[in-house]
Amino acid sequence: MTIEEYLKKLERFMDDPYARQVRTCFAGLDGRSELAVLQAPSRSEYEQLARAVARMTPQERENAERLSQARTEQLAQEAGADPALLAIFLNGYALEKRKAAGR
Description:
Number of strands: 0
Low-confidence stretches: none
Shape: globular
Helix content: 55-70%
Radius of gyration: 13 Å
Strand content: under 5%
Distance between the termini: 14 Å
């Protein structure tokens, strides 16, 4: 699975009414539910992630699960994305890729 395929997988539940309702169950005291972003991203979150993925070099896309924290933060800044959101996305991708490989 490529990083682009993983991003596309998240797109189908973007702003889905039922997913938003479920996501509220995971909201913290501040009303956000960052960990649920991998199941039901808002349009804004999805667009931030898409901009960050678009800024990656081909080599970074190939090895997205191995990006350093510094590079993740730099990509987020360049894309106008939340660094924590991008980190959660990249960690989710790494887990998904590992699962697909049977590890």
